[in-house]
Amino acid sequence: AVKSVISQTLDKRLYEIIVLKNFKDPEVDRLVEQNGGKMNELNVASLGAMIARGIVQSKGEVITFLEDDDVYVPNRLKRIYEVFSNDEEVIYFHHNVSTIDQNGKPIVDQLVERTNVNEFVRAESSDDKKAVFIKYGWFLGLRNSSIAIRKDFIKRFVDVIRLFPDIIDVHLYLLALSSKGAIMHSPERLALHRLSSI
Fold first, then answer.
1. How far apart are the first and last CA of the chain?
2. 5, 68, 118, 180: which has the fewest C-beta neighbours closer than 10 Å?
3. 12-24 as b/e: b if 16+ CB within 10 A
4. In 3-state terms, what secondary structure has residue 168?
């Protein structure tokens, strides 16, 4: 995951890396610090508390997430930079994913394929957002590694996010649907979602 962020095609001066985890991993720590990132080891189980900490620490205008078992495709951050730079009304951006197995080999997962939305979506008004939710349900709010949000929008909700133990992706989507600003979905597959057997 970390290597996929470091290997992005976007100029490294245009993004920061903030890692939040509840375990020790000297190799990851060293890699992040060598690339100017910030390490946070928190003794909490709540994903919401971790994400809230990252939001508070971030300096950028846009925040995006990557779970430790997923991977960004090389141009993901460049694409997100373009979306938010070209449309200042966008507060929430979501994209599709491809699936990989535990070893990083591409696979087809029918559930992921059913939840990928294969058309471009943009909604700004309350009525348009309602229509989008009726048509697609939760599909535009799945997978943290598929989401980018404008910091000005989300920083108002940090205290609420801190209370969420998990399913942050769905909560962020609901907050965006109920807030002023546009939501956008692209059918581009900008991340690889890793499926592991349990």
1. 20
2. 118
3. eeebebbbbeeee
4. helix
Q: Which comes out higher in pLDDT, residue 117 or 47?
A: 117
Q: How far apart are CA 129 and CA 182, in angstroms?
A: 8
The pTM of the full predicted model, rounded to 2 decimals, is 0.93
CB-based contact 7:28 (threshold 8 Å):
no
Q: Are 60 and 77 in contact (CB under 8 A)?
A: no
Q: Are 191 and 69 in contact (CB under 8 A)?
A: no
Task: Write a three-state SS string for 75-94.
Answer: CHHHHHHHHHHHCCCEEEEE
List 18's β-bridge partners, or say none.
Answer: 38
Report how far Cα 99 is from the mean position of its chain's Cα atoms.
16
Q: Which two tokens stand for residue 61?
A: 């205008």
* Predicted confidence (pLDDT) per residue in 125-162, tens digit: 999 999 999 999 999 999 999 999 999 999 999 999 99
Report the alpha-carbon distance of residue 119 to residue 117 in Å, rounded: 6
